[in-house]
Task: structure prediction
Amino acid sequence: MMQTALRVVASLGLLAATLWAIMALWLRLPFPAPARALVAAAFVIAMLIVARWLWLGRNRQALLSFGLPWAALLGWWATLLPSHARDWQADMAHIATARITGDRLVVNNVRNFRWRSETDFDARWETREYRLSQLRSADLFLSYWAGESIAHAIVSFDFANSAPLAFSIEIRKEKGEAYSALKGFFKSYELAIIAADERDIVKVRSTIRGEDVRLYRLDMQRATALGLLREYVAVSNRLAARPRWYNTLAVNCTTVIFGMARRLDPTTMLDWRILLPGKLPTYLRERAFVSRAVPISELVARSRIGARAAAPYPDPGFSPRIRQGVPYPLSVAPAAR
Result:
């Protein structure tokens, strides 16, 4: 009975591993579809042989039959390395780098595109300078594009005498490439950190793409906001020095932010809503990071910026206008600004 149970467990593990291998081979082998199908079929046959040896009790043969194909597969998988040298889409041509010298923050490759449509835009990449002493607060944008559970997170830093500086953690798409959550599990996209003007990174989602963008004023002390900004600078510079793969589940727009939060406060605990960022408002509210002055339903309703976001470029009043009516936490109340 025990041996049968162990074989069942081993068979289930073999099935799961084989399914992963099939997807990896199909999605990442640089061959035409018939050749990829042939390689995947050969791998399945090899794993069926493993299962047969396993159920016959011939563990040595099973181990050998398992080891050789997997050694070849994982050896090939290890050769798939992320790169900054690809033919990127125009809006991903550069990623952010920055340096802090005393009170001075200089950010390179700040994206400030003027969008007329997804394919019609004026590309502008700028170097911008900020004073850390003028940092006032941080805000969170959640852009919903696939129901109430899935959203893209953007963190924006508000300065006293400068336009807000927004950071977006995204996949770095090549020309002609489209996003697939499934492909995101299989070393298909590099990670990108884009620093941008809100009239670009927020407006393109709310006005050009028609996504449901919601804005939440974060209730955090200025020192915490400054620490988070420093984290973005450090992570951006590390990524620029060493490319990294995006992963749909493990390395995405919210898990990277969560990693920053953990470094700032090691007691921060992982929550399932980190993996479903559309649910972040309830997570943040439970931890007093957003206003509790109104019911959560009203907070969500007032967070929607769509109607306020639409206006022709250059739209210099965009950032203050989209914040109108959004509840302020006490730490960033208007009287303190």
